[in-house]
């Protein structure tokens, strides 16, 4: 489920870059904007590639414990991208639709990261309980005597 959206995220990032490259800004402005946006998008794409690598080895599903920090990193990078695009919307000639798409994508990333990290916390808690002697489910039941006392 989580890996299905990463190719779409890559396309959305490329769409933003293309729109900004050909958005009609002057050459100097476009170059500054494109350089900054390309740097942010490259960082974002690097995190997505790391997540895709994690998913390859685990039956196309992400391990919540391993993916939680990477998803948090993705959220951070996407927030930086949204902040940059919002701050420089006029200067970089960012279309409203492109900015809204990035904001929507970032919100979905936050949701996925929160879900993965919540599951990771539950798994870690269960592992620590099991290592500490287990909960009530792992304790063998004492047999009661049968027959007359």
Number of helices: 4
Count of extended strands: 0
Classify the helix fraction into a percent range: over 70%
Morphology call: elongated
**Which band does the percent of strand residues land in?**
under 5%
Total number of distinct structural domains? 1
- The end-to-end distance, rounded to whole angstroms, is 59 Å
- Rounded to an integer, what's the Rg over CA atoms? 23 Å
Major β-sheet, in short? none
Based on helices, strands and strand pairing, what is the structural class? mainly alpha
Q: What's the overall average pLDDT, rounded?
A: 80
State the order of secondary-structure elements, H for helix, E for strand: HHHH
Low-confidence region ranges: none
Which helices and strands, and how do they pair?
Layout: H1 6-21, H2 27-56, H3 64-87, H4 96-131
Region (Disordered): 130-149
Keywords: Signal
Biased composition (Polar residues): 139-149
Give an overview in words:
This protein has about 150 residues and is mostly helical. It has one domain (about 5-125). The chain has four helices and no strands. The chain has helices at about 5-20, 25-55, 65-85, 95-130. Helix 1 (about 5-20) packs antiparallel against helix 2. The longest helix has about 35 residues, at about 95-130. The N and C termini lie far apart (about 60 Å). Keywords: Signal.
